[in-house]
Amino acid sequence: MADPLTPGIVAGRLSQDEVAANFADLHQPLDPHEASVAADRCYFCYDAPCVTACPTAIDIPLFIRQIATGQPEAAGKTIMDQNILGGMCARVCPTEDLCEGACVREAAEGKPVEIGRLQRHATDSLMARQGHPFRRDASTGKRVAVVGAGPAGLACAHRLAIRGHDVVLYDAKDKLGGLNEFGIAAYKSTGDFAAREVEWLCQIGGIERRPGAALGVNLTLEELRSEYDAVFLGVGLGGVNDLDAEGAGREGVMDAVGFIAALRQADDLTKLPVGRNVVVIGGGMTAVDVAVQSKLLGAENVTIAYRRGKDRMGASEYEQNLATSKGVRIIFNAQPVAVHGNGAAAEIELEYTADDGTGLRGTGETLRLPADQVFKAIGQVLTFQGLELDGRKICVSGAGRTSLDGVWAGGDCTPGDDLTVVAVAEGRDAAEDIHARLMAVASEPAGAVIGEDARA
Amino acid sequence: MADLTTDFLGITSPNPFWLASAPPTDKEYNVRRAFEAGWGGVVWKTLGAEGPPVVNVNGPRYGVIHGADRRVLGINNIELITDRPLEVNLEEMARVKADWPDRALIASIMVPCEEEAWKAILPRVMETGADGIELNFGCPHGMAERGMGSAVGQVPEYIEMVTRWCKQYYDRPVIVKLTPNITDIRKPALAAKNGGADAVSLINTINSITSVNLDTMSPEPTIDGKGTHGGYCGPAVKPIAMNMVAEIARDPETAGLPISGIGGITTWRDAAEFMSLGAGNVQVCTAAMTYGFRIVEEMQAGLSAWMDEKGYSRVSEVVGRAVPNVTDWQYLNLNYVTKARIDQEACIKCGRCFAACEDTSHQAIAMSPDRTFTVKDDECVACNLCVDVCPVEDCITMEELQAGSVDPRTGLTVQKEPANWTTHPNNPGAVAAE
User: What's the confidence (pLDDT) of residue B1?
Assistant: First the structure.
């Protein structure tokens, strides 16, 4: 039996019980009384700032009022009207940067209404009920291919299905869900929530699922364009950036996203090997997710090395605090120079950095940390080719229209914040735009709700 | 330190906080605990005539209105007067009074509206050494249907008659407890006074249905599928009670009649407000039922500290102090002009003032794209609603326009001299200004 001090990358550093406790729900669900107390704190603001701050423009004061008046399922519907992945967003949204950051009670007393947890209460209540709360319009006879079953693709597929179109939902993996299934930290999506959400969402009908179909492997855009009336690409960012450091190819140096995906799919986390001394390179949510989960698996020392300062870190303040509270050390202004070792990684050499305004440069001062496992969390890149790009992402205009007629895109593969909630908004709005085009009707304004007609 | 000793009708108690006649004062055990906790007096749970005791329902007796986090805002009850034998109550009262001579002990009584009934019970109450009696003319449920309680309190002639009997057969103070379930509280108060009452106490509970169970379609509290109106009390009734107290205190016909104030008193501040409106002392029930007897500690300390701060040395200095400022609408100064002012530093930009004013008032608040809210003086009628709905204390205040300045809404210059409706040109009955 290994323990946190066992050298190398080994499994079973902690007991089953310890791992189970470590990977339990990060935020316990609110019980009905807690929810009513939390809901009572909402001021029901006029033209509420939280709604403006939500990329999917959920009517937050309304849904909170519905919780307060004892109707959490109705609250769930209000949320799902705008954001069909409201359940996942309630778990993973950086609310401190979005709705809760804009809450007037944050301004008033530094303690916002717990919008995220209230949203979870509402969506959990609705999803626990039998049946699906929306129904499809009459069939239009139009067929749309949605490529990528992550947040953008799922939101797009659901909205298209509601509008009466027949959707074929492709995904490169054998299991749908995209980053919800493979990328979110496990303690944010417990109880196989991502998979359950996909099943629940598909209850709308009219969505044919075709997993194991990857663009550029066994699927081409040309085929899709000829076979379907419209195509939506929500393919995400399939590649990872390489680490530009000597010894980056050593055993023990690996992609954070691959490790997180393996962790999410593991049946038994005590069988998942993790290093004793883990160093994470990067400063985004992925860096925090891999660092925290390494610690929770039993790594003795986990360090995040970020090349810039705290203020530039992609991970929110809340995520940084979460990491440090779990015992992760964050080193700012340090970039990797080399991974040393006799074969496998044993040590990482970092160089401090400074930015005088003309660009980031190494200062020449270095430090070495023991590192038998090094995670690269320095960003993902688009692997798809064939469309006009905007920087390193697919160029879009309006509601996700690409350079190719009849092809829309959204989510992480297009410009904008790489957030679940942004992907949902983009998928939803692209669906409305596709619908408008296919039916030759006026396009709904961005942020359109599903509408009363579609309520089951 | 302010002296909280209170003299009410010659009955002294170490503080003005009495427990009202209600479940907390139903028996010796509770009353001893109350006195140990520091209560200045108790009005014992209402005694009935000798004979088989009354019976109570065996299901729920209380209904409740909750605020957020189950904060009790109001309770109603369908409990009747004491359901213990008269003899037991009288023995206990005598024992408690003997052991606590410095505390006020008042016997609440409700017997049929017949002279013989009162004549029979009063000497027995006298023997207990109780400091006085309170006539329960207020309970709105159960007993009223038998011609007692509020059935008496709603007929001034009965009040006067029974009060007179009591003054005839009992030589200690007689307090008449009034029901609020009437149109004009001054009428029963005057009847009590005419009958010779030493004081009135008010209010008793208000006819009410606290809620309806929408599954069983029955009012709460529900007894086997049915409910009945109960008596409402607690913080929710305080404004109604205070108005009634003030009406009696300021009416020339009843002014000077001592008042024991009752109705939702929960804190020292509530008590001070009641006393400022003319109550010589106060009675508490719901707050004790919600939090237990210990709340009297806060009440004593709070009242004492406030009196010290204001320079009042005795409770009597507070009593009635606000009464001269309670007036009729027609005497309010129409030349007093104010405008709402929003403190932009304190504003948290919730927009509730805007929604309230724009939707339901006078469209007198402007909202800029960056959520800055400002008052439009030319529309503001100074209704105060924005102040009331603002979640930030003192963020919105009302500022008086000085005499000589022009009110942008009316275009009129603010006059220095007060003027009211009695002399207003729009009043057909106006008297010419002198």
Answer: 83
The DSSP call for residue A444 is P
Q: Quick count: other Cβ atoms within 10 Å of Cβ A179?
A: 26
Tens of pLDDT along A384-429?
888 999 999 999 999 999 999 999 999 999 999 999 999 999 999 9
The residue in chain B having the minimum alpha-carbon distance to the alpha carbon of residue A61 is B350
Q: What is the pLDDT of residues B61-109, one digit of tens each?
A: 999 999 988 999 999 999 999 999 999 999 999 999 999 999 999 999 9
B293 with B390, same domain: the answer is: no
Q: Does the beta-carbon distance from B354 to A46 stay under 8 Å?
A: yes
* Cross-chain residue pair A47–B348, CB shorter than 8 Å: no
Measure in Å the smallest separation between the Cα of B346 and chain A Cα atoms. 8
> Which CATH number do you get for residue B78?
3.20.20.70
Of B325, B343, B367, the position where a domain reaches its end is B325
Q: pLDDT tens digits for B373-400?
A: 999 999 999 999 999 999 999 999 999 9
Q: Are residues B212 and B272 in the same domain?
A: yes
Q: Is B139 a catalytic residue?
A: yes
User: Are A443 and A399 contacting, i.e. CB atoms less than 8 angstroms apart?
Assistant: yes
Pairing of strands B6-8, A347-355: unpaired
Number of domains in chain B: 2
Do residue B317 and residue B373 come from a single domain?
no
Half-sphere exposure of B108 (CA within 13 A, CB side): 29
B352/A36 touch (CB, cutoff 8 Å), yes or no = no
> What is the reported pLDDT for A455?
66
The residue among A43, A44, A67 with the most chain B CBs within 10 A of its CB, best to mutate, is: A43
Nearest to A40 among B68, B350, B354 (CB): B68
Average pLDDT, integer, range A424-453: 83
Which tokens go with A224? 């899709």
Show the domain range for B334: 329-423
Residues B120, B269 share a domain: yes
- Measured in whole angstroms, the distance separating CA B150 from the mean position of its chain's CA atoms is 17
Per residue in B185-203, pLDDT tens? 999 999 999 999 999 999 9
Question: Does a structural domain hold residue B105?
Answer: yes
Mutation target among A34, A36, A41, A46 for the B interface, most CBs of B within 10 A: A46
pTM of the model: 0.91
**Catalytic one of B139, B166, B386, B395:** B139
Nearest chain B residue to A42 by CA distance is B350
- Distance, CA of B83 to CA of B52 (rounded, Å): 9
Tell me if B433 is assigned to some domain.
no
The answer to whether residue B286 sits within a structural domain is yes
Q: What is the pLDDT of residue A447?
A: 55
Name, in order, each residue with C-beta under 8 angstroms of A109's C-beta and a sequence gap of 6 or more.
none
- Domains (ranges, CATH) in chain A? 16-24+240-376 (3.50.50.60), 32-128 (1.10.1060.10), 143-238+382-454 (3.50.50.60)
Q: Which residue has the tokens 């403006």?
A: A52
